[in-house]
Amino acid sequence: MARRQAHPDRGRRNGVIAAALASVILGMVVLSFAAVPLYRMFCAATGFGGTPRIGPAASPGAVGRMVTVRFNADTNPALPWRFRPEQVELRLQLGAESVAFYAARNLADRPVTGVAVYNVTPEKVGRYFHKTACFCFDSQTLAAGQDMQFPLSFWVDPALATDPDTADVRTITLSYTFFRSLEDAAGSGAVATAGPHVGPVVR
């Protein structure tokens, strides 16, 4: 019995399908790596999920009622630092730019690099909390036993008081959590315990 020969068009179609599938898989891999940084950029720009907005917008000056901002600090167990706010809370007027400080000490006997993430609660005020300068998402390296201060400047939009969803808010909590950077964790063989974060993030 004579063998049937493969049709050349079928081979070309299979090649096209294989190339298309490879492109889709490659695209999905790229998107999986980009998803977290892009999500953080979106949150920082919009205030979504309790993320304070970051940008050059100048404060309008003190024009509204008073609000209390409380400061919280957490450290992932994989990062051998002591991290704390320098002040428990600040009472300020809406629209007024303020400065606050956090402090950290490296408890290890070698340099260690950390990366901070942050949010505000209640989450609904994220769009109205503007940070004009902060240390978040930037790698911070402390030498063995080194102490360092981390300043931040911020203001709360007076629109907070006129939005029916946030008009009742009188206290806002700003929380920072420091994680070991992925690069530092990889160098010390501790990637698995570095924490649920992605390394340096484009702001």
Automatic annotation (TrEMBL):
It is a single-pass type II membrane protein. Residues 36-203 are periplasmic. Belongs to the COX11/CtaG family. GO terms for molecular function: copper ion binding. Exerts its effect at some terminal stage of cytochrome c oxidase synthesis, probably by being involved in the insertion of the copper B into subunit I. This is Cytochrome c oxidase assembly protein CtaG. It is found in: Cell inner membrane. GO terms for biological process: respiratory chain complex IV assembly. NCBIfam families: PRK05089.1. GO terms for cellular component: plasma membrane. Keywords: Cell inner membrane, Cell membrane, Copper, Membrane, Signal-anchor, Transmembrane, Transmembrane helix. It comes from Rhodovastum atsumiense. PANTHER family: CYTOCHROME C OXIDASE ASSEMBLY PROTEIN COX11, MITOCHONDRIAL-RELATED, CYTOCHROME C OXIDASE ASSEMBLY PROTEIN COX11-RELATED.
